[in-house]
Write a structure and sequence with these properties.
Residues 153-267 form the FAD-binding FR-type domain. The protein has 421 residues and is α/β, with parallel strands linked by helices. It has helices spanning 4-19, 21-35, 53-67, 76-89, 96-111, 117-147, 240-248, 283-296, 316-323, 340-344, 356-361, 376-388, 414-420; strands at 155-165, 170-177, 191-196, 205-210, 220-225, 254-261, 274-279, 301-307, 329-335, 350-351, 369-374, 396-400. The protein has three domains: 4-147, Orthogonal Bundle (Globin-like); 155-261, Translation factors (Elongation Factor Tu (Ef-tu), domain 3, Beta Barrel), CATH 2.40.30; 274-390, Rossmann fold (3-Layer(aba) Sandwich), CATH 3.40.50.80. The protein contains 13 helices and twelve strands. β1 (155-165) and β2 (170-177) form a beta hairpin. α1 packs across α6 (117-147), α2 (21-35) crosses α3 and α2 (21-35) crosses α5 (96-111). The longest helix has 31 residues, at 117-147. The radius of gyration is 22 Å and the shape is globular. The two termini are 22 Å apart. The structure holds flavin-adenine dinucleotide and protoporphyrin IX containing FE. The site of protoporphyrin IX containing FE has 26 residues, from α3, α4, α5 and α6.
Length: 421
């Protein structure tokens, strides 16, 4: 437990650290990754760039959570999500002191002469306590994933049994355990991670992929969208792992896969109507939810899909078949760009970008639960639309296919963190 004096020290130093968030981030990563290059296997360089993403979120959130160490009950949801992401990456207890040491080093550097031993001790104590909470939750998740029937620890080799093009930019990989052993179940919405080191890459990389078909005890299916370089940045390479999977991983190849995790899961105890909203590849996490809802419940459900165009439109026939199974299951798809044939053969229902008004037009009666998933920009637009529609946080469930933007906290702020939780 932190002493009252340590808590006061932390509160007093927060403004200075807040003012230098970027410097802390840069100092922290630079020093840690040069002292521990083995950690480059864990961090995605695409997320370390200056304009935000993971680099900002990890260092800033460590500070934010450490400053809120006495209110972790109110931050429960965020701790759970980070622990889950860490488990998917195989972050282990021995990594925590490394991060702690370099974070304290960064704090010392930013505060300069003002960094007294008492200040560093107070931040060290807060970090230590937070690390204990995270390690404890991660240990429980590791136990769960490894001891459940068909579960395993670490990365298990899977053979690509089938590779199927689902659309111009989306490809499914059907994965069976290479050891022929049993396979753990998962909840609709959960994901696995894949670890790969493409030839020419100095480090291995881990990426998460949602399980895109209901569990059947024999195989998993992931569906990967080919990630291009961002528009207007011709010197940036396209996505490393998604392109490697598309271009170089073939049927018969072996992929190391981490057991399913994830807290973006369908609440099957609720009887409320459901609105599923998917942007781009976000359908992957939503499809097993739709399958479950269409086949094993009577809840009204509507799937709203926002796609750039036909190129991204995976699973059109499967969604149509599920919508035909019973009344009360509907789907509407918008394309940003479409030609006449897309409208004629019924692929795309409408043109344009999903906004609050369009969502409102398709809402089921009653207070629905909202599940939404997709790239970061899409998630921000949906959050805004749901704000406009007055949907309370308790009925929102989401997963961003990138470092989660909800973790991008500028600095420790107990009230804001409590509201986020
Ligand atoms: C929980 C979860 C579930 C997911 N499920 C799915 C899924 O089911 N299907 C799916 O397709 N994806 C899914 N993702 C996303 C997936 O994990 C990968 O992030 C995605 O495949 C991109 O990885 P990559 O290695 O191809 O791209 P990266 O190499 O990570 O690059 C990402 C983007 O950043 C750009 N970039 C790289 N370096 C820079 C730079 N210096 N400056 C600017 N831009 C840069 C790249 O060009 C690319 O556009 C999921 C993610 C999460 C967190
Ligand atoms: C108390 C300590 C820690 C906190 C509060 C913390 C916080 C976070 C947060 C907020 C994220 C983003 C999650 C998301 O986007 O979904 C994250 C991701 C991550 N964390 Fe931690 N973390 C801590 C410790 C560690 C440690 C010890 C390691 C090991 C080196 C680590 C490695 C990572 C990695 C590799 C990612 C994903 C980054 C990427 O995609 O590049 N973290 N962490």
């Amino acid at each position: 437990m932190l002493s009252a004096q340590q808590r006061a020290i932390i509160t007093a130093t927060v403004p200075a650290l807040r003012a230098h968030g970027e410097t802390i981030t840069r100092t922290f990563y630079g020093a840690m990754l040069s002292a521990h290059p083995e950690l480059l296997d864990y961090f995605n360089p695409a997320n370390q760039r200056a304009e935000g993403g993971q680099a900002r979120s990890l260092a800033a959130s460590v500070l934010a959570y450490a400053a809120n160490i006495d209110h972790l009950d109110r931050l429960g949801g965020l701790v759970e999500r980070i622990a889950t992401k860490h488990v998917s990456l195989e972050i282990l207890p021995e990594h925590y002191p490394i991060v702690g040491r370099h974070l304290l080093g960064a704090i010392a550097e930013v505060l300069g002469e003002a960094a007294t031993p008492e200040i560093l001790e107070a931040w060290g104590a807060a970090y230590g306590q937070l690390a204990e909470v995270m390690i404890g939750r991660e240990r429980a998740l590791y136990d769960e994933t490894s001891t459940q029937p068909g579960g395993w620890a670490g990365f298990r080799p899977f053979r690509v049994a089938r590779k199927v093009a689902e659309s111009g930019s989306m490809t499914s990989f059907h994965l069976v355990p290479a050891d022929g052993g049993p396979l753990a179940d998962f909840r609709p919405g959960q994901y696995v991670s894949v670890r790969l080191q493409p030839p020419g890459s100095a480090h291995a990389q881990v990426r998460q992929y949602s399980l895109s078909a209901a569990p059947d005890g024999r195989q998993y299916r992931i569906t990967v969208k080919r990630e291009g370089a961002p528009a207007g940045l011709p010197d940036v390479a396209p996505g490393l792992i998604s392109n490697f999977l598309h271009d170089h991983v073939a049927e018969g190849d072996i992929l190391p896969v981490h057991a399913p995790v994830g807290d973006f899961v369908l609440d099957e105890a609720s009887g409320r109507p459901v609105v599923l909203i998917g942007g781009g590849a976000g359908i992957t996490a939503l499809l097993p939810m739709l399958e479950r809802l269409a086949t094993a419940s009577t809840r009204e459900v509507v799937l709203l899909r926002a796609l750039r165009g036909r190129d991204q439109h995976a699973f059109a026939d499967r969604v149509r078949a599920l919508a035909g199974l019973r009344t009360g299951v509907r789907s509407v798809t918008w394309y940003e760009v479409a030609d006449a044939s897309d409208r004629l053969d019924g692929y795309c229902d409408a043109l344009g970008r999903l906004d609050a008004e369009l969502i409102r037009q398709h809402l089921p009666a009653g207070e629905a639960e909202f599940y939404y998933c997709g790239p970061v920009g899409f998630m921000a637009a949906i959050e805004q639309a749901l704000d406009t529609l007055g949907v309370p946080a308790a009925r929102r469930h989401s997963e961003a296919f990138a470092p989660d933007p909800s973790f991008v906290v500028e600095a420790p702020d107990a009230e804001a963190m409590a509201r986020a939780g």
